[in-house]
């Protein structure tokens, strides 16, 4: 690091260089007026005479100065010193997210989700001010000494109110994280930032960026043409709900991607609660996020993590009641963290299923259809799901007619209804039954319902003709748009 004694703006004393890029260098500096350390970004002298580059540098100062958010690095001052433009920023003592990933490899799941939420919240603030960052990458995310993530370097941000954000054929941003539309030189929107954030989340979970090639252009083209590696296959302990967030955030077609960062944040907050409930633990930053979750996502997180003081008080009261000889017995049935998630069944009783009751069924393929995620369909939590593989153009390969998911009731029963919740409505399915063993082909099953196009909350009325069946199969015969069907919840009624 180069140590200097140069003063900027007759006020700030440069101490040491802490970073450098194509347009500017960043120094740690001391502000004697307020007796604090700051960061100063100095534009390189050799490009400071370029009007376009100069305007881009000034634009960053104006853009970030409009943002007031705990996860955005604050602009303190800006000016020019002897013809050299500079921006004064808060000094964040810590490291970049890229440095942390290089040092630790893949991050703990809850920590990765927490950082994605914090950066998502920073982007939400920027987007509210009609600013798209266009260069979301771990190098531009700082982790301070308290473990908080802060977004910096809005150097290539542009107002969303400006038409034609990119020149034809020009790629802005780092290609490891560039969105397909950005790689092709098309207009950039909030959804471009969402894609890049999804790639950053992928890297935090896997430990490396998804695409490699000999040139940056080749990497950019992989973002356009190649499917993202399956994050759940690379790290099996990741929940299907989190894998679904990564997949939707990094969809190549904007029509299939999150429309807003707020929608992505909602799902990430639910995922963080689910991960905390599933593992029973969360890191310091994840715990901070859990305590700030809004009402519609907070219920997914354990009470003891969201309100440790309240939980302790409840425990003390409970102990007092026991010590005083006061007993109270209450019975309540509730599925998962979210309560009942399938349609109400008046006059019917829900069949109690074992935690391992859901199984995949792919007799015409390789015999497997995401078996690791089958139990997500009966865990009582909407954000988790079982899903089919992605089939190109929604067409089954070879002579395949479909795939399915079946429930084992434990004993033969005369079920009267099967309820299904999905986030991918539009696929066609029917319910089949088998009394004893699981048939090796669909011909061995008895069809119990009509084939119908499935809605988000679908009910299949079953005609068992007074026969008892132990196994109940949801057979998916046509796929929805996008080539993948998801089942969030299944339940049997009798």
**Unreliable sequence segments:** 1-5, 159-173, 298-340
Structural shape: elongated
The CATH topology name of the largest domain reads Transferase(Phosphotransferase), domain 1
Strands of the biggest beta sheet: in what spatial order? Answer: 1-2-3-4-6-5
The CA-CA distance between the termini, in Å, is 73 Å
CATH top level assignment of the largest domain: Mainly Alpha
Total strands: 22
Strand content: 15-25%
What does the average pLDDT come to? 81
What's the main sheet like? 6 strands, antiparallel
The share of residues in helices is 25-40%
Based on the coordinates given, report the CATH architecture of the largest domain. Answer: Orthogonal Bundle
Structural class: alpha+beta
Total individual domains: 3
Q: What's the tally of helices?
A: 13
- The radius of gyration is 27 Å
Looking at CATH, the homologous superfamily of the largest domain is: Transferase(Phosphotransferase) domain 1
